[in-house]
Amino acid sequence: MASQEHRVEAWSGWTVLLVELVLILGGLLFVITTASSGAAPGFALGGALVLFVGLFLTFGFFTLQPNEARVLLLFGSYRGTVRDSGFHWANPFYSRTRGGSAKAAGADTRPAALPGLLGYQVLTTKLSLRAQNFSSDTLKVNDKRGNPVEIGAVIVWRVENTAQAVFDVEDYGSFVRMQSESAIRSIASRYAYDHGEPNELTLRGGADEVALALKEELHLRLAKAGVVVEDARLTHLAYAPEIAPVMLRRQQAEAVVAARQIIVQNAVGMVHMALRELDEQNVVKLDEERRAAMVSNLLVVLCGQSDPSPVINTGTLYN
Q1: Could you tell me the CA-to-CA distances from 65 to 86, 160, 187 in Å, in that order?
Q2: Residues 209 and 257 placed together within one structural domain of the fold
Q3: Mind listing the pLDDT tens digit for each residue in 189-200?
Q4: Distance of alpha carbon 204 from alpha carbon 251, whole angstroms
Q5: 1 shares its domain with 60
Q6: Which of 89, 170, 173, 261 could make a disulfide contact with 16, Cβ separation 3.0–4.6 Å?
Q7: Do 89 and 134 have their domain in common?
Q8: In this predicted model, what pLDDT tens digit does every residue of 142-166 receive, in sequence order?
Q9: Residue 163 CB coordination number (10 Å)
Q10: Residue 109, phi-psi category: left (phi > 0), alpha (psi -120 to 50), beta (remainder)
Q11: What are the residues whose beta carbons fall under 8 Å from the beta carbon of 84, sequence distance 6 or more?
Q12: Per-residue model confidence as pLDDT tens digits over 169-187
């Protein structure tokens, strides 16, 4: 069952600070006065108790910047989330940590008391609600056709539900990283890199549609951690090095074929137009053999890769 966040308001830190100053100064003054006047030890003990209470209450102060929140935990029980920025005071018994993690990537963490313990980090109860970027490593994945491709993405995300982020996953930063890479692999395997079927969406040709599909996939995966995805875009897309040269030659060959097809189509149209103009304007009368020779010459001129070299015929077509 998903944890539900409920907001609470902490006490103003400035008001409590004034009360604590009164307690600390009053208790200190009472201890000094009773000790110098030779009063009963019980009075001095009462003043010391007031002084101790004033000092103990100082552990309840905390500050929140804009777009920060603190989860209030009292002996393992969730008491609410403070989202208002400013100087606050809460029960000093509220925990300031929420356990530890060896992989606290992307979370608001602090070094543990034993920093040399394999990078172990203590997770705090203060969470950032700001938008954060996650740039994945370049992943090698097989596309829909089984071709190995390299793919990478950048994801913009933020914490929306602090209770889910703290209680429903061990470390929401690591959770975002692992689930994002898994989602990228899943999306890459659904589409061909390029050269798909007619009207088929590909990784290379449908960047916007692929980004939208990736965002929806991430939304489903990260909702459990109380995280929302604001944007997701592919930042790297290429064939894997072992097949890149072959695919490059294939692309070049297809480009040459496509260009030749366009050249031939246009050349045929120009030849047809030239013959029609000659007939309509009665410039010259051509029989079938002369017409075929003209068509051949025009196609050679229009479709050739090098500049044509004219040959002057001093005789006739027949001798």
Answers
A1: 6, 16, 37
A2: no
A3: 999 888 766 778
A4: 13
A5: yes
A6: 89
A7: no
A8: 888 888 899 999 999 999 999 999 9
A9: 17
A10: beta
A11: 9, 10, 64
A12: 988 999 999 999 999 999 9
